[in-house]
Amino acid sequence: MVEDAKNLLELYRCMVTIRQFETMAGEYFAAGEIPGFIHLSIGQEASSVGVCSCLRPDDYVTTTHRGHGHMIAKGADLKRMTAELLGKKTGFCKGKGGSMHIADFSIGILGANGVVAGGLPITAGAAFSIKMRKTDQVAVCFFGDGASNRGPVHEVMNMASIWKLPIIFAVENNQWASTTPQADSGSVKDLSTRAAGYNMPGVSVDGNNLLAVRKAAMKAIDRARKGEGPTFIENKTYRIRGHFEGDPQKYRTKADVGKWQKKNDPIDLFSKYLLKNKKSNKSSLEKIWNDVAEEINDAVAFAKDSPFPEPKEALEDLFVTPSKGGSPS
Amino acid sequence: MSERIISASAALAEALHEEMANDESVFIIGEDLVSHEGIFGQFKGLPKSFPGRIIDAPISESAIAGVGLGAAITGMRPIVDMHFSDFVTCCMDELCNQAAKIRYMLGGQVKVPMVLWCPDGAGLRAAAQHSQSLEAWFVHTPGLKVVIPSEPADVKGLIKSAIRDDNPVMFFQHKQLFAKQGVVPEEPYLIPLGKAAVKREGKDVTLLCYGSGYYLCKEAADELADQNIEAEIVDLRTLKPLDMETVSQSIRKTNRVVVVHEACLTGGYGAELAARIQEELFDYLDAPIKRVAARDVPIPFSPGLEDYCLPKVSDVVTAVKAVTYR
Predict the structure, then answer these.
(1) Where are the domains of chain A?
(2) What is the mean pLDDT of residues B59-86?
(3) Among the four residues A27, A87, A243, B68, which has the most C-beta atoms within 10 Å?
(4) A97 chain-B contacts, CB cut-off 8 A
(5) What ipTM, to 2 d.p.?
(6) Chain B residues with beta carbon closer than 8 angstroms to that of A198
(7) Checking DSSP bridges between strand B205-209 and strand B231-235, what pairing results, if any?
(8) Do B103 and A317 touch (CB under 8 A)?
(9) Could you confirm whether domain A5-245+252-258+280-302 is CATH 3.30.70.240?
(10) Do A124 and B65 touch (CB under 8 A)?
(11) What average pLDDT does the segment B29-50 reach?
(12) pLDDT tens, B237-247?
């Protein structure tokens, strides 16, 4: 697969955007400006960008409580994302969802989810609908190593296989199910080996290597688009931040995290690749960081300037009214 | 208006035929639907008329409900067959955490035109996990509509409206009522959700009921009429949204209320009704509200045990006599 330099820089920019957006979110959370709790995917950017960059705007994605990266990689507006995190009326969900329920249907994001593995059955439905409507869209469900142990995953993988649903199961094995190491909670080392039990292809890839993720994703998406069925991709990566912001992380040391990041940070790895292969130069990459910082600043300014919803707006958006109705024939 | 008499099952199948012919996005998914045309024969003729749109799924309730939800938010209008209403417990996350909330959580970005068709109720000696009436759980979950028809004509008009509704609708149909016969117009018609029906007029007491409770009230009202007590029967048909206006009109006239349902008493829909009525109509009441419901135990198997636990016509008569001081 030959990637042109312009596209590579766009991919780089997307990873940097996720990193800076989430760094900003962490800071605003610590400062008390973001209510509730947030889960950051810093360190997992190659997985989000690697998969989503291979999708069309009309393809579907369900994401998780750790879903900012997937939103950004699928093209979500940073201003409305930031506004949602701050609980503002101008957010994607008008302040009713927050970080854990962030979504943008206009770009095919069918929702983050507060329930671990909650997105998988929804993805099955989106994929089933694709089949019934006879389009060549595909549906991606992102989930974690923790989610991979939940019952609905079994149901959906089996169903996807027997019906050849156009699903890409993108598990992000970040080594930690909240506080429990993956090795202590999963029956297998490589989660992709489970795919064999469902008669579908499964592959484990270095989830910090953007181009490796893209290669696997393209193959899976191509297969799904052709109506050949689902694929299971395990992106092996690492969660640099806590399970949630403010997590005391008694289950690991700062040194462990630092050691890992020094070697495997997906953005560092990709910038090294770009420089080594003369796809870019230091000043161009620096400019990207600066441009993104400006974009994030604009998003924050927009969110801060936006009003909170009126309290009584809590009563809106429950039901569609009036419903379709129409003639009784 | 024709005077054709058919069963509730046939009324359901007829309505589904009409809606599936009318709208290509309607499909039915569940377990064991095709070969038996529904395990109660409720989908008679549909697999033949609409090949590929009656879907036999693996026994995977989470995935089945998820297919309903995911399809509903991407342009389809699914009907999910729950096999037995008791099995909703296997997909409560998909129903209550996801389908009920997705529109709201996402700030109104999406609509969820989905029907959960749930055969419920006791009396088949089917024991505790195939006999429940679980409507109160879903009434208590904001974001869901809850519909429970009694007579065949209600089944036809209500299921059509439920399918056309852009919101998730829990549609409970009592297993014992599938064979009940009734007048059902041949021509297509809709019964709006949220509209109760006064099925018998009377001045002495209001019987509030739905589903199988309606038939208990009907028989009780005949018996009471022989004793010069004129009961008014309000069949709620939709529990959420509730047609409080019709309820209120009836109570302002009769000043006495008995609520009848087959679900067990404690925390049941009767409790909600009693609370609403005392809040809004206290000054119109001449007696405390009575509830007739099942005993607070799981439904037992042995016929004598099951019969003992379920509400009976005589319970309704006794309750009416108590509130009318007769």
Answers:
(1) 5-245+252-258+280-302
(2) 98
(3) B68
(4) 105-107
(5) 0.95
(6) none
(7) parallel
(8) yes
(9) no
(10) no
(11) 93
(12) 999 999 999 99
**Integer angstrom CA distances of residue A181 from A145, A175, B324:** 9, 6, 67
Chain A residue with Cα closest to B106: A93
Catalytic choice (B37, B83, B130, B261): B130
Alpha helix stretches (DSSP H) within chain B:
8-22, 46-49, 61-72, 92, 102-105, 135-139, 152-164, 212-226, 244-254, 269-281, 303-309, 313-323
Side by side, which strands form the sheet with B290-294?
B197-200, B231-235, B205-209, B257-264, B290-294
Rounded Cα gap, residues A292 and A17, in angstroms: 6
B61 carries an active-site annotation: yes
User: Is the Cβ pair A328, B160 closer than 8 Å?
Assistant: yes
Secondary structure element (H or E) that encloses residue A225, with its range: helix A210-225
Alpha carbon A106 to its chain centroid, in Å, reads 16
AA letter at B316: V
* A261-319 pLDDT per residue, tens: 999 999 999 999 999 999 999 999 999 999 999 999 999 999 999 999 999 999 999 99
pLDDT classification of A2: cutoffs 50, 70, 90: low
**B140 catalytic residue (yes or no):** no
List the end-to-end C-alpha distance of chain B, in Å, as a whole number: 40
Q: Which helix (H) or strand (E) holds A47?
A: helix A45-52
Q: pLDDT category, B125, cuts 50, 70, 90?
A: very high
Residue whose structure tokens are 């739905």:
B210
Q: How many alpha carbons lie under 13 Å from residue B41 in its C-beta half-sphere?
A: 8
- Both tokens assigned to A262: 């020094």
B268 within 8 A of B240, measured Cβ to Cβ: no
Where do the domains of chain B lie, and which CATH numbers do they carry? 5-183 (3.40.50.970), 197-323 (3.40.50.920)
Query: Is residue B8 left, alpha or beta, with left meaning phi > 0 and alpha meaning psi from -120 to 50?
Result: alpha
